[in-house]
Amino acid sequence: DKQTHFLLITVFIVHHLADINWASFMPQSLEGLSGSCLMIPCTFSINISFDQYLIDNCVAIWNTGGPFGQTVFNSGLTGQSTNGNILQGNLTGNLRAKNCTTVFHTMLPQDKNTYYFRVQCNNKLKYSFPTNATIITITDSLPKPAITPPPVEVEEGDPVRLECSAVAPCPLLPPALTWTPAIGDVEENQQSASVSSVLNFTASRLYNGQRLQCSAFYRRQAGHSDLQYENNLTLRILYPPNNTSVSHSGPVIEGTSVNLTCNTDANPAVDEFTWYKVDGGQVVAVGFHALLSTNVSEADSRFFCQVSNRYGSQNSSTTQIDVQCESECDRNTDGKYPPSQHDNTSVSVDPSGPVPDGSSVTLTCTSVANPAAANFSWFRVAGGEKELISSERDFTFNVTKLSHNQYVCKALNVHGDDDSELVSLDVTCEDHLSVVEFKHLLFPTSLTKHARKGQLSSVSQLLHRFCLLHAVSALVP
To answer: Does the keyword Protein biosynthesis apply (predicted)?
Structure first.
């Protein structure tokens, strides 16, 4: 009848409302690390009429395989009785606050299963929650830490914030996070199932291309070795040109081509080059590529380059090309040239003018060349033959009237050599001829007598002393 039908509907609704009040809440699945602990975050709700039965003697029970399956943990077992638990652990939640969070210790791969929660008190409150169980998987490895945001481009000077996070299935042994290299300030944060480390720094060109690594170090429980996992990203910092300079191959011969290269550090790469030639007070653009090939002279030997990208521009310093000559250059320039003509190499005599017979004289070789002459050679010229007598710039020796030698200097640099003109010395007599000595010259017998007395050994020695070789030829037929 209608009354019976109404009663059945009422009972069904009341029963359904009661079922709605009974529920457990936990993750659908959890992944743990073998040899470490695992926490199951858990809360529950019961019919309000049973709140009075939720007292201190209530215990948390975990079953596997189903709500009424094998009991693997009972929080009510203490002391030696805990050996009765298949899994060792601790109820960390407060059941009176309807928190059933539990930590299991030293989980192994064989502990993989579906876990159901049951609340059991020494009164009417005994309930196994049939839904919202959690599937636990135990592995020998964990995912590497995550770095956010993913690699991006940032401008130099901008603040950068990077976060590294790693799972922490065991709250008793959370992983230690480390940034390498440590280029900024670090903030640590630990949550129930994860830990994070935030790195803050200011973007610098010094960090461009830097490989930044976050490491997660996991300690495990007794009998299991520790593990470490890494993740990394490469920083990309955007900045204007820096350290701009000009390089070239070195000294060049005047009138020949030289290759100039504009070097710089920029990110993104430079997209515009301009070469300038400095001519007195004027600056003239002469090229628009990284490499400039141009003929140079002493007048056209100063250059600089300008580079730019979308973040800025920079000029190099002015470079002076070392211009040298293959043949004689204009003396009014600072060009590089060899001592290639006679008027480029000369000899000076010290003392200048007539030189007393038997005295010392110094010949100095001077050469106008660029680079300066590096080697000098002195030659004595007699009878059309040359004899090498010195390799020094200054040549010092004693002169004699009997010598009719001439001297020449050769100067040498990397571009060539040159000989000076021949130099003759004006040698004068040391003393005047006395009457007695002149008499001896006229009468050889007297000379012989002198020689016997040890005063002069020969006529030639006497003549040598007084520079009279030419006089003898006139006096003695």
So the answer is: no
